[in-house]
Design goal:
The structure holds two protein chains of two kinds. Chain A is mostly helical. Chain A is 79% helix and 2% strand. In chain A, helix 1 crosses helix 19, helix 10 packs across helix 13 and helix 16 packs antiparallel against helix 19. Chain B starts with a helix and ends with a helix. Classes of the chains: A mainly alpha, B mainly alpha.
Chain lengths: 385, 341
Amino acid sequence: MSTPKAMQQSFALRFSSGAFLAFWCLLAAFPIFWIAVMSFKSPVDAFADSAWDVITGPATRANGDGLSIIDIALGLAVLYFAIRWAFTRLPGLVQRYCPPGLLVLGWIIGALAYAILFVLIFFGVLPLVLGVLNSLLGPLGNPVLGLTTQHYVAVWAENEFYRNFLNSMLVTAGVVTISLTVGTLAGYGLARSGSDLAFWLLILALVFRALPHSVLVAGYLPVFINSSEILRPIFGEGAPTLYGQPWAVIAVLVSINQPFTIWMLRSFFQNIPAELDEAARVDGCSHFQAFRRVIMPVMWPGVITTGLFSFLLGYNDFLVTSLLLDAQNQTMVPAIAGYFNRETTTTDQVEAVAAAVSITAPLFLLVMVFQRQIVSGLTAGAVKG
Amino acid sequence: MKFKTFAAFVGPSVFMMLLFIAAPLVSVFIQSFQVTQPILQQVEVETCTPGFLTQTCVTETKTVPVLDDAGKTMTETRWVGLQSYRNVLQMDKFWEAVGNGSWNDIMQIDFWKALRFTLSFTLLTLPLVIGVGLAIALAVNNATRSIRGPIIFISLLPFIITPVIGSLSIYWLFVGDGILTAMMERWTGTNISMFAQAWTIELLMYFYRVWHVAPFAFVIFYAGLQTVNMDTLESAVIDGASRWERLRHVIVPHLMPLIVFIALIHLMDCYRVFEEIVGFRSQAHVISLQWLTYDFMTPDDAGNRAISRASASAMLTMIGIVFLLILPLRRTWRDHKGSAH
């Protein structure tokens, strides 16, 4: 599309807008990039005054942990081909070997297999090969960039961060599945009903969305702690104490998320032409059959997008999980608060940084894979109404 | 759609919202007028120590909690009226401070301190988020098509990151002699510590929030910019409107509904500012309303949670929400009535 002459911009304007954009990108990425760099350095380097020292890591190198030029070159090459392969070949493989009905499952298995293979090659085979290469090549094999994975080993193996990771996965998976199941039904119902009741439900949901979560938790906490006594008349002796139970937290997070979910899904369902299910109803389907046979096959883009936002809510939550879960069932984000409460030495601090980067990495992958869905989700609610 | 079918579709969702949002609200409201305390009794205890000739015995009265059959502390729940609210608001100290005309004395009281921060946080970041978001959207709209994808990817990172981690990542840049503090010290030649006084922490919090939310505003504005009517823009050019006038009179009015939408979402989210306090560890200097409730609920050294005070502060927070939503809700109500006729 060629721009009309009158709309063309002067060089100064183009330059300043480009410069502003570059500055914003730097600002947006820098803190995240920087904590990723810090997490690989020894404490002295990680909190060094000069930026150059943090990047090159002289103290880390002095400890004997570092990468040579060969390491960097080969590592980057492997990384490049791995990412390219994931985006060009992997989709084809998944589609070829997966029965058509189970595409979602096929993708999950494909992604898992790919992740395992990547970890095996990158952290298993590559260091072995490079160890031999470095010793053969002499000066080229000397470390130039200080880099150590000891903090990650400490966090994941010694401090058993994988437990928190599994708890996070449990809570997040529960939140996503349940809130989508409940939310899709409600969103469809709200989108297809023009009644006053539907309008008032949506307004009520909007009010609920504005509530601070701490207000709600103040309501749960005493009930959850004493729930075994309160529920005893109903359930008998086996009445559970809800405090500290992951499934209770899942229920709470699903409900907190419901207002947002139904608003979003409603706007997606409104974009699906109502003629589609009317045609199915003419052919003799009930509302539920029409929903299952006609709407379900076409609703996936909206559901995936809403699922992403439910995932973010469950994964990022600090307030609810830190108050309603005990130490054994703690998820990742509140667990990191435990790090900085006892953060006395600089080693502890860098371990906290490594834990923070570990939490961010899955989110990074998420944006990479689902960028389009996230953008469409953000705009769906706003632009259409 | 018949009511029965509608109810079947919406039922589960409404049930969950009622059980986990509406019911807790009611129970918080009731709790805020009650206090649950362990029942205490005074017991005379005689302790004897072996001594020469006779035992030395001391009798003293101790206050001990009453235990039930299972050996647990028995508690009683009393109605105390507005006592918890009085504890949170500390009106006597407040009026005394007002009488002295001393702003600092008011800011010594936790609730008023939290209220002051929450309000200024909400109101100051709002124009910044809209301005920065609009600026990025205009700049991206100006950029070559091929680099828009990567820029959107990078811009989404601050938005998607866990809020606690996001504020921590900025905290680590400035803590102690972190590289940015060291850089500022080199420029100014003075010793700077960003986390020793309230106003620098607040500045970093404002920065963090704008950094975190501007991408959201940017994506929405960017989508809105794609639908600007080119004919209107061209006729504005023909009428001799400058670039600024075009922005002011064509683009901004077109984006107005989106600006209102973002402002509403931003007000709701900012009013419950919380993660920043945790991430920046600023409890000693800056606190927010939601953090105040959270703090009452976390067990203290003796393991007690101040539930009734938490409920009172939660209800006070709710009042703010009512003020916040009253205008948009009135507008929606009018629109709804208007569309019905």
